[in-house]
Predict the 3D structure of the following.
Amino acid sequence: MFVRTILTSKMTRNLYTKNPPYRYNSSDDKWACMLQWCGMPMKSTQPLIDTHLHLASEQFNEDRRAVIERAIEAGIAAMVEIGYDLASSHAAVALANAHPAIFAVVGIQPNHLHDLPSDWIDQIRRLATHPKVVAIGEIGLDYYWMKSPPSEQEKAFRAQLALAAELGLPVVIHSREAMPETIAVLRDAARSPGVMHSFSGDWTAAQECLELGFYLSFSGPLTFPKSAALHEVVQQAPLERLLIETDSPYLSPHPHRGQRNEPSRLVYIAQKLADLRGLSLAELAPQLWQNTLRAFPRMAETLG
Ligand code: NI
């Protein structure tokens, strides 16, 4: 209780979040730990970009605006809203239209291939002409849920890789229990690089993705103590090929594991990545910013 009183005092909060000379680095771990333990929101003094989230989810119907405001308050200067079916792709473009900080990615995820109208690819193509659509996604293979047979998943995956190539856009890849198969399709058919969303492979798989020119994006599981394979990937991969995301409302980071996730918690993932690389968050954030603009060139036109 005493510790909680101290930590919630305005002075401490300002020390942690506002004073420019204050930097997050490994010697500040004890502060980060105590704040996390107390459930205090973490903030970044340098702007960050959440490269993958689903604000259109009905889980945000009650408080979507407040969630976006909390994210901006925490230092999340831009968010990439990801479609996974036709409705959510339309919703992503609508959100991007309504909010300067939100960008959109449109596509059909492998668990949502059933009941598509015959002109679905034309609908995605039309949506992708919007200037704030920065990639085609999330697309790929999901052998965990296996909602459609592998052959159908691969057909839709390849059709959308071709669409991305036609439009000169990068791709955002969803791969679950199908990493070797996903990499094989990318090697054969990807004409533009992109992002391995919520990367969950080992260092060998990571190297193959890096060779294909892809970025590796890390989400909540990076903060879990037992994610040793992910920690190794983050430590071995070139810094300029790493991205972060929340995948909100899913994959909430430690110490909010199991709760509805929201973009303000991107700071926990950024801090973990910084710790793993022996950097302060203030040192890491500008690098992540540049990485994101390189991965999504259309964002650079707006954000510079
Ligand atoms: Ni997602």
Summary: The radius of gyration is 19 Å. The pocket of nickel (II) ion is lined by residues 52, 54, 82, 138, 247 (CB under 6 Å). DSSP finds 13 helices and eight strands in the chain.
